[in-house]
From TrEMBL:
The chain crosses the membrane at residues 6-27, 39-57, 69-88, 100-117. It comes from Nakamurella flavida. This is Esterase. Keywords: Membrane, Transmembrane, Transmembrane helix. InterPro entries: AB_hydrolase_fold (IPR029058), Esterase-like (IPR000801), Mycobacterial_A85_antigen (IPR050583). It holds the Pfam family Esterase. One of its GO terms (molecular function) is acyltransferase activity, transferring groups other than amino-acyl groups.
Length: 437
């Protein structure tokens, strides 16, 4: 039952039909004051609330890096309207079964509206994802050791060539990888770090495991470190790759790279905190100390979606020796909290030079990156970030990076893009990261 999809198939249509029927019931009450006062007030209130929320989110506060589509405040307002109608149904002496039907009607309107928002962002693909139930087992992070025992596993020295040529999977290797909740301290940066997550492929979960490469992933904003597990379906995608490559896949580290969900820290050292230092110093130090990995930074990569895609090109341009490979999925032309002037004034104290010194598009114009490579992905229906991805691709190419770009048909600015992009990117990543030749 947990595998039932919330995005396609019959369930979304059933929810929509039930929601429409529920809305009709909530409105259709045979009382004069209901028809002449309550209904007009709720309708006008829903329209006014939708317009107000749209203005507050995108214009007044600019809460998120990308504009929030109007359907989001619209469906939120419909939910509020359904609750208002439900409260109104308690007056006028309705019968008990009418109260029950009003409650059920409001609930299905709320469920249908919430899933319409979910379908737009494609965040919860299944019922299991909605309740944060993952198919991958969640384990305590294995302890690093140089000798094998019943409680721990040993790590072999890094292979001279591609891992797939030197690694022989043992008979007891699990078919699936695992996920672990971790805490990555902000020792140097002082960043307000919360729990992160790590995906360990099957080849990591055996005795004499190979030294595997590292992929660091950053989600969108608002977002959290578990987004690539819930919405990005990362364990499933990595397991699918590992099943045809001797259990080999990157170790994927998903640190907290957003902080407060309501604040955009732009993945840099700013007045909001030293996020760049956290990702480039604290996170790698924790990885080296707690994971048995390939420590050759040539085999490390940084990727992300939306805000995380912008973060990926920031890491690639500001720290090319640490992250010479990147995956920019639906990122922006530059990190921003609205406009460049707003970003410079509020986050860099008005120091334009400090901003341009870390801004990817400016760095790509000023420097060459012959040892860096990356891939850009964007949804074909993403009119907001599609042109920007083309701009960044051309700038990266001109700066000597080995880059490609792919526009994915049928997607907008939603989690369907990284779900489609990561399998396409795996052959490129695996070659750059030393898994395949």
């Amino acid at each position: 039952m947990l595998d039932i999809t919330l995005l396609t198939g019959p369930l979304p249509w059933v929810l929509l039909a039930l929601g429409a029927a529920g809305l009709v019931f909530l409105f259709a009450r045979r009382l004069r004051w209901w028809r002449t006062r309550m209904v007009p007030i709720v309708v006008v209130g829903v329209l006014a609330l939708a317009a107000f929320l749209d203005w507050v989110i995108d214009d007044a506060l600019h809460l998120f890096p990308e504009p929030v589509p109007f359907i989001v405040p619209a469906y939120i307002s419909v939910i509020v309207g359904a609750l208002a109608l439900l409260i109104g149904w308690q007056f006028g002496r309705p019968r008990w079964w009418q109260r029950v039907l009003a409650l059920l009607s409001a609930l299905v309107v709320i469920a249908a509206s919430a899933n319409l928002i979910n379908q737009h962002f494609q965040y919860y693909p299944t019922l299991g994802a909605l309740f944060e139930v993952s198919d991958s087992p969640e384990i305590t992070l294995p302890v690093i050791t140089t000798t094998s025992s019943s409680a721990t596993t040993a790590t072999t020295a890094p292979a001279a060539g591609p891992l797939i040529d030197s690694f022989t999977p043992p008979a007891d290797m699990p078919k699936e990888g695992s996920i672990s909740a971790v805490t990555i301290p902000a020792t140097t940066s002082g960043w307000t770090a919360t729990d992160g997550w790590v995906y360990l492929p099957p080849a990591y979960l055996v005795a004499n495991r190979p030294a595997l490469p590292v992929l660091v992933l950053a989600p969108g904003q608002p977002g959290g470190s578990k987004d690539f597990i819930i919405a990005g379906q990362l364990p499933t995608l990595m397991d699918q790759y590992a099943q045809t490559h001797k259990g080999l896949a990157p170790i994927v580290v998903m640190p907290n790279s957003t902080g407060d969900p309501s604040i955009n820290p732009i993945c840099a050292n700013t007045s909001l905190g030293n996020l760049d230092t956290y990702l480039s110093v604290d996170v790698p130090a924790w990885i080296d100390a707690n994971l048995a990995v390939d420590r050759d930074r040539k085999h490390w990569a940084f990727g992300g979606f939306s805000y995380g895609g912008t973060c990926a090109i920031q890491m690639a341009t500001n720290h090319p020796d640490l992250f010479p490979t990147f995956l920019d999925i639906s990122g922006q032309v530059e990190p921003t909290i609205g406009t460049r002037d707003q970003t410079v004034d509020q986050l860099f104290g008005g120091n334009t030079a400090a901003f341009t010194a870390i801004n990817p598009i400016d760095l790509l114009k000023a420097k060459q990156y012959p040892n860096s490579a990356g891939q850009f992905y964007v949804g074909a229906n993403d009119s907001t970030y599609g042109p920007g991805q083309q701009t960044m691709f051309q700038a990266a190419k001109a700066a000597g990076m080995q880059v490609t770009i792919e526009v994915l048909p049928g997607y907008g600015h939603d989690w369907g893009v990284p779900v489609a992009a990561i399998p396409k990117a795996m052959p490129f990543l695996a070659t750059r990261m030393g898994i395949t030749g």
